[in-house]
Amino acid sequence: MKHFFSLPALLFYFGLIQTTQAQTSALSEPSLSPDGQEIAFVSGGDIWTVPLGGGEARLLVSHEATESRPLYSPDGRRLAFVSTRTGNGDVYVFHFDNGNLNRLTFDDGNDQLSAWARDGKSLYFHSLSRDISGMNDVFRVST
């Protein structure tokens, strides 16, 4: 059974979440897990998760740099995101089963995630450094 949520409802829900930080930061860029049980979101430049039914948010990816655009893999076992930890926005994948983190792109410019392939074997993104035609070309990288 698919669940559909309106953006205003999600924003209202995010307003009710209390993080474990001393101060509650703005919450943005929500991503619903494929099983509909969890939401990944960005707060304070880090990636957090919280059960959809409510509860305490869990810090998933933290770094001095800014993380953004979390996207669950189709099977829910990985989470792709963009990080500026190398100075530019590159695509990374976090593995829930072992906590490993893999960097997938190595560009001079900023990459922005678009979507996972249905089979979970690759990610689609666009890159400002590779945008030769000026038309937001989409690229694919293996995961």
Explain this structure:
This protein has 1 helix and 11 strands, in the order H-E-E-E-E-E-E-E-E-E-E-E. It is 7% helix and 42% strand. It is globular. It has one helix spanning 7-16; strands at residues 27-32, 38-43, 46-51, 58-61, 67-72, 78-83, 90-95, 101-103, 111-116, 122-127, 138-142. The two termini are 28 Å apart. With 143 residues, the chain is mainly beta. A hairpin with a 5-residue loop joins strand 5 and strand 6 (78-83). The strands form 3 sheets. Strands 1-2-3-4 form a 4-stranded antiparallel sheet, covered by helices on one side. It has a 4-stranded antiparallel sheet with strand order 5-6-7-8, with no helix packed on it. A 3-stranded antiparallel sheet has the order 9-10-11, with no helix packed on it. The protein has a single domain (7-142), classed as Neuraminidase (6 Propeller), CATH 2.120.10.30.
**Which CATH C-level class is it?**
Mainly Beta
Helix content bin: under 10%
User: Mean pLDDT score, rounded?
Assistant: 84
Q: What is the CATH fold-level name? A: Neuraminidase
- Count the beta strands: 11
Structural Rg = 15 Å
- Give me the oligomer status: single chain
Helix segment tally: 1
Strand/helix succession: HEEEEEEEEEEE
The shape is globular
Fourth-level CATH superfamily: TolB, C-terminal domain
Architecture per CATH nomenclature, i.e. the level-2 architecture? 6 Propeller
Query: Which band does the percent of strand residues land in?
Result: 35-45%
Q: SS-based structural class?
A: mainly beta
- How far apart lie the N and C ends? 28 Å
In total, the number of domains comes to 1
Instruction: Give a short account of the largest sheet.
Output: 4 strands, antiparallel
Low-confidence stretches: 1-12, 16-23
